[in-house]
Each structure stands twice: as C-alpha cells, then as structure tokens.
Amino acid sequence: MSLSAFALAVLLLLLTPGPTNTLLAVSGAARGLKASLPLIGAELAGYLTAIVPLVFLAAPLLAEQPVASLVIKLASTLWVLLLAARLWTRPPSATEPGAITAATVYGTTVLNPKALIIGLALIPPASFAAPETLVVPLPYLALFALLVMVVATCWLSAGAAILRRVATTNPLLFGRVAASFLVVFAISLAGRAIGWI
C-alpha cells in the first residue's frame, strides 16, 4: 500500500467515531480545547503500544498464515459492526466528563479495535528475512503519528465547538451518523480481507 493510500485509509479510520474519539470530544466539550490537549499524547501512546508489537512481531508471523490473518481481519470487521450497533442503539453522552483522564484515554486506545486494524491490515509488516526484502515500516508509523495528532485535535475541537449542542439536542441522530460511518468502514475492511477491494 502506498503512503498516500495508507494516509487516506488511516485518516478515514481515525475520523470514524469510536471510543477514543468519543472521549476526546466529550473532554473538549467539558474542559475546552486547551485543557484537553494532553490527551493527544495519551492517545498516541496507546496506539503505539498496541500497533508496534503487531507490526514487528504478530504481522510477520501472520504473513505466513493467511487463514489466521483473514480470521483476525474478519473478527475486526465484526467488532466494528458491533460498535456500530451500540452507537445506533445507545449514542454517547457527555454526562461524566470529569472521568476522562490521560490514563482513561490511553487504556481505551490500547483496547481500541482500530489499533488492531491499523497494525495488521494497513501498516506493512516488518520483514528482516533478507536484505533485498527488508521492510521497515517507520515512514508509515511516522505518518500515522502525525495523523493521530491532527485528528485528535479535530475531535477535541469538535467537542469544544459542537458536541455539547448536538449531543443534547439530538443524541439519537448523533449516534446513528457515527454508526453509519462504522458500517461503511466495516464493509471496506471485509472487502479488503476477502479480496473484493
């Protein structure tokens, strides 16, 4: 996957509402952008904690096991669909903004299924087998880190600017729009996993 295609895929994935983005937006709404900026570092640390071992250890092993890799990608698709169903039926709310700390954002991000998708499906796995086939995904990781910081700032800003109004005036619509984005991504992920895309 080229860096530009990778950037687009990661950008769409990171912009998709999910557990970490919800925490960022709620914190932006509750505390404002400036006070919530430290959460960006917590999110980036959480993603790298999950993704680096996947890229350097798990993905190279799974490259030799295409069936296992397919099962993991399809399981990720099912998880994203489950998240979409939850957002559709129970939209997020800003009722507990005080509980959002850097540790909460870090832990949520480590467990975020987006990390699994990015680490196993989007970033090329590291390969040190032979010098002519050396693959070190550092440019992908650097671009990923930059995109995380940009998108996290957008979520914090959106929370500070509009979440309070939208979530209180029409929470069901908010949840259903977010769920729709997740479904589109799940279909795309499944299509790539089985070779349709």
UniProtKB/TrEMBL annotation:
Q: Which UniProt keywords apply?
A: Cell membrane, Membrane, Transmembrane, Transmembrane helix
Locations listed in the record: Cell membrane
Assign the protein's first listed, main location to one coarse class: membrane
Q: Which domain of life is it from?
A: Bacteria
Q: How does it sit in the membrane?
A: Multi-pass membrane protein
Any stretches that span the bilayer, and where are they? 44-63, 70-88, 140-161, 173-194
What PANTHER family does this protein's entry cite? ARGININE EXPORTER PROTEIN ARGO, ARGININE EXPORTER PROTEIN ARGO-RELATED
Q: What is this protein called?
A: Threonine/homoserine/homoserine lactone efflux protein
